[in-house]
Amino acid sequence: MNSTSDLAHTASKCSPLEKLSEEPEDDGIEHLIGKVHDTDCLELMRSMPTGSMSMVFADPPFNLNKKYTSYKDNLPFAQYMAWTEEWLTEACRILKPDGSLFVYNIPKLLTYTSAILNDLAEFRHWIAWNSNGQPLGKTLQPAHYGILFYTKNRNSKFYDVRAPHKTCRKCDAYLKDYGGKEYLRHEFGYQVSDVWDDIHRIRHRSKRIDSHPCQLPIHLIERMILMTTDEGDIVFDPFCGGGSAAVAAKQLGRRYIGADIDKGYCDAATERMTQAKPVKNRDAYVSIHLNKIVSMRDIDIKLRNKKNGRTKKTNA
């Protein structure tokens, strides 16, 4: 979760709608793929052709005065939002017609972010990721981070994703009771909703990249990739930080382009991406955490059953 230069950008004179209508550039992007670029994400996006990315995942700085190594995270609010509008406009421009955009942030900032995006793309979901935050006093306990999910249009690529059925930690019994109709229980798991409480934050220091204050679980990003892309599609991460999105993309057979202005983060992300290997269960890409499948596309389950001659219908 990194910024561009010192974030001291101002909104472009060109309106968002004008930017979205620009014609694609002639130069390709092959030279950018498979790399984490030590550069300002705005400069990199401006060099990309319109309609060239299948998915953009953005985890920008929250402007909460976090201690990064290469820039300050405490801009005046108006300046921060002007910069946000600028990179969002570029992110929407480079999306393919069936592309998807995910923006991760705290709920307060996402309310302002969605106001910008509503003029640029189609709102699909506000995903609530349960993070189990600490009480702040005289307020409700902040229990989730938000992930805005927007697409280029209503017919953008999307796949239902399933997660394993929740079970009791002590007896391993299913928590959801089907009232004697167990045949309705899906063989693998439930269909994922817009509330994700089965993926937990990275808390152990041994799992973190040194000096980076905000890192996301790889399997959190893998779920978004499985939902909206296919093998070989390009995922772009303008604030790559420790490289969780880079690893997620490579493990799921997607191509990746990343950017960060901190060379140390770029080097760490590149190393993690280089070490990552494709993750498949039989013939399907899956998201695995702690040696268990945590996300799998429903279409891949159905295709596997068809190959095996299984046609049993099951629900959530």
What is shown here, in short?
With 316 residues, this protein is α/β, with parallel strands linked by helices.
Count of DSSP strands: 14
Q: Approximately what portion of the residues adopt beta-strand conformation? A: 15-25%
* Strand/helix succession: HEHEHEHEEEEEHEHEHEEEEH
Write the CATH homologous superfamily of the largest domain: Vaccinia Virus protein VP39
State the end-to-end distance.
34 Å
Would you tell me the structural class of the helices and strands? alpha/beta
The CATH class assignment of the largest domain is Alpha Beta
Tally of individual helices? 8
- Which parts are unreliable, with pLDDT below 50 for 5 consecutive residues or more? 1-26
Per-chain topology:
Elements: H1 16-20, E1 35-38, H2 41-46, E2 53-58, H3 77-94, E3 95-105, H4 107-117, E4 122-130, E5 144-151, E6 161-164, E7 189-191, E8 195-196, H5 218-228, E9 234-237, H6 244-251, E10 255-260, H7 263-275, E11 280-281, E12 284-285, E13 287-289, E14 292-297, H8 298-307
Parallel strand pairs: 1-10, 2-3, 2-9, 4-8, 9-10
Antiparallel strand pairs: 3-5, 4-5, 6-7, 6-14, 11-12, 13-14
Helix pairs in contact: 3-4, 5-6, 6-7
